[in-house]
Amino acid sequence: MSATSQPGEPDRQTRLARMIRVDHAGEYGAERIYAGQLAVLGRGDKAELLRHMKDQETHHKAVFSDLIVRRRIRPTALLPLWHVAGFALGAVTAAIGPRAAMACTVAVEEAIDEHYATQAASLDESEPELRQTIETFRLEELEHRDIGLANEAELAPAYRMMARIIKTGCRAAIAVSEIV
Q1: Contact at 8 Å (CB) between 30 and 60?
Q2: How far apart are CA 74 and CA 63, in angstroms?
Q3: Which candidate, 97, 120, 113, places its Cα nearest to that of 44?
Q4: How far is 33 from 35, CA to CA, in rounded Å?
Q5: Helical H segments across 71-97, by residue range
Q6: How far is Cα 18 from Cα 61, in angstroms, rounded to an integer?
Q7: How far is CA 74 from the centre of its chain?
Q8: What's the pTM?
Q9: Largest Cα–Cα distance in the chain?
Q10: Tens of pLDDT along 11-54?
Q11: Which residues fall within 8 angstroms of residue 40, CB to CB, at 6 or more apart?
Q12: Residue 3 near residue 126 (C-beta atoms within 8 A)
C-alpha cells in the first residue's frame, strides 16, 4: 500500500483501517455462519469438519480483534446485523442439507479468497505482518473451499444460483463493512 494516495482516495491510515475493519467483520460473520450450520448439523457426519472450519474462523476473528484494539480502529457498526445474518445463512443452508451447507462454504470462501488476494496485493513492505496474516488466512479459507467441494457442494440443489446469491451478498457486505 503506497504511502501516497491519488486525489479523492482515502489516505493510507484510512485504507488500512477499512481493511482491518472489514476483515474483522468478515471473520465474525464466517464464525456465525458455521455456528448456524452446527446448530442444524452439529450431530451429523459433517459436524467435525464444520467445527474445524469454525475454529479457524474464530482464530482469524481473534487476530483481527487484536488488530482492531492495537491499532485503535473502530469496528463496523454492522456487527449486530452480521451476528444474525451469518447465523441465519448458516442455519438455512444447513436446513436445506449438508450439500447446501458446503455450497455456502464454497461461495463464501471464493468471495473471501478474491477479497484477501486483492488486499495482500495492495500491501507494500511497510505492512509485512498484516500481509502475511492475510495470506495465511487466505490459504485457510481456500482449504475450507476445498473441503466444501470435496463434500459435494456442487451437487446441492440450485448450486449455481445459490453460489451467485451468496457471493453477491458477501461482496455487498464487504463494501458496506469497510465504511459503516
Answers
A1: yes
A2: 15
A3: 97
A4: 5
A5: 79-96
A6: 15
A7: 18
A8: 0.91
A9: 54
A10: 889 999 999 999 999 999 999 999 999 999 999 899 999 999 99
A11: 90, 91, 94, 95, 101
A12: yes
